[in-house]
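User: Sequence in, structure out. Go.
Assistant: Echoing your sequence, followed by the structure tokens.
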Amino acid sequence: MVTMAASIVFLHDRLSLFIFRIPYASLMATLLCFIGVILFSVMMTWGFNATVEQTRRSLRIQDLPWLDKVQVFFVVIAVLMSLFALFFLLVGFSATGATREEMFKHDKAKCGGRFACAFAMVWCTLLLVCWLFIITICSVLCGSYFVFDHLCHEIPVFTEEVCIDLKVFEPLLKGLSSADLHLCGGDAQQFCAFSSTARSWYIVGWVGSCLVILGLSFFLAVLSANYAHVGNASRFVVEWSYFGE
């Protein structure tokens, strides 16, 4: 019985030590970044493909040599964000609880730990600015497709007499397309079908970018706290011991 009780106490102590080493805020931020970047990359790729197909059929533009580069761009964003999230999580693990006390006992270790936190904070801030720019582009796309959907909902029946006027985009398409920007009948119906589909995907992509920004904001707050904790870990222990006496 004594051996069993000792084993239970030992397991409880080891479990408590393991729990205190887990950076829960960093894990939550990592999960938000992973979910957000997956939603963003997948949905924006689908939405972009729908927009390209809509452009090809409605505006008769076939030469799009940069199409593959844009799709690769979304893959690169997903990979880079995943790597940065794992890096921030690693910094969070190293600066949490008992792990922090073991790794940053000496002054040189503390200096290195604070440098790692500061380096991560700089990258986190830069990524946050980039994602604010990205969500701005997503907002413009969502707003544009809300306008397109509004135009489509005003058409009760798709006939050759009822058309969608896209002349406002003529300066942007000069030299790229010679198609008539009055879409009627079947062309208007195809345009509206692609607009409805692309709008839904762009909205989900916008939500994904919001999750990434939220995760990066969590990371920035956690890294700021870790920066202070790494430099003052020994002082906290001394003060706690003093008050305990």
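User: And one key feature?
Assistant: The first helix runs from residue 2 to 20.
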